[in-house]
Design a protein that fits this description.
This protein is of the alpha+beta class. The chain has one domain: Fumarylacetoacetase-like, C-terminal domain (Fumarylacetoacetate hydrolase, domain 2). It is built from 6 helices and 14 strands. It is globular, with a radius of gyration of 17 Å. 43% of the residues are buried. The mean pLDDT is 95.
């Protein structure tokens, strides 16, 4: 397959609002090729739009989500600066394709991580933020019908990430024992626990650093890492969504038509 042409095809689908068909329907390509498409897509967006890499998101960090793509490990996508909102945010459904919502814990880092960090390194360098991720795709009827190669190629279905402004040093939290309640218009619609994310979100970040090193990339100072959803994704609908974490942090997103 033509990596550059495929990346431009996905960018065009996003820009025109006309979703594409799954790449896996007509193309035979590997996971390695899928990451090449993603990396080329990010480079092309930077060339066209000046959008800079801001960090990474980690997908499929639980057995439930991995089963959707018939895999036994996560996958990552690249966050651009335009994907990030600090504090509460407003989102219009008309600006997106078929968005979902996932409450997550996001890490920021005060210095670069090594290529294979220990859990102690991740915790000592990290700050923890409450977050809501809004995954979306450039494919038609993408959830839950995608293959792993589609997810990786389409930048792990990156849409928007809304993070709380106030962070907590990661070494002050029991990161493997954080609970979360998700509300929609004041009604509880989901509850989650941080152990859903690979047993501990720190292990998710560790996995990412090691995976990135295979592609010649690293987690650098100032980057954000969205570590994985605490509950199965829910459909994004109009109204106010609020994720409240046992760390005392909250984050909200207001969704309009």
């Amino acid at each position: 397959m033509n990596i550059e042409q495929t990346a431009r095809h996905l960018i065009e689908a996003e820009q025109t609002g006309k979703p594409a068909r799954f790449l896996s329907e007509n193309e035979h390509f590997s996971e390695k090729d899928a990451y090449k498409i993603q990396h080329t897509l990010i480079e092309e967006k930077y060339r066209q739009q000046g959008a800079s890499p801001y960090g990474y998101k980690i997908s499929m960090t639980s057995p439930q989500t991995q089963a959707l793509a018939d895999t036994d490990e996560p996958a990552y996508g690249t966050l651009m600066d335009k994907n990030i909102s600090l504090g509460s945010a407003a989102i219009s459904l008309s600006d997106m394709n078929e968005p979902l919502l996932e409450p997550e814990l996001v890490f920021s880092f005060d210095s670069d991580l090594s290529a294979s960090p220990t859990t102690e390194e991740v915790v000592s360098k990290g700050t923890l933020h409450a977050a809501i991720e809004i995954p979306d795709s450039r494919f038609k009827r993408w959830f839950p019908h995608f293959e792993l190669r589609d997810l990786i190629s389409d930048n792990a279905f990156t849409g928007r990430v809304i993070t709380g402004k106030e962070g907590i040093p990661a070494d002050r939290c029991a990161i493997d024992d954080i609970t979360m309640t998700l509300e929609h218009n004041g009604m509880c619609i989901g509850e989650g626990h941080s152990t859903v994310v690979m047993g501990n979100p720190v292990l998710s970040v560790k996995w990412l650093a090691e995976k990135l090193s295979q592609h010649g990339k690293t987690i650098r100072k100032g980057m954000l890492v969205s570590s994985g959803t605490l509950i199965p994704p829910v459909k994004l609908e109009e109204g106010l969504f609020t994720a409240a974490f046992s760390t005392g942090q909250k984050v909200s997103v207001h969704v309009t038509a």
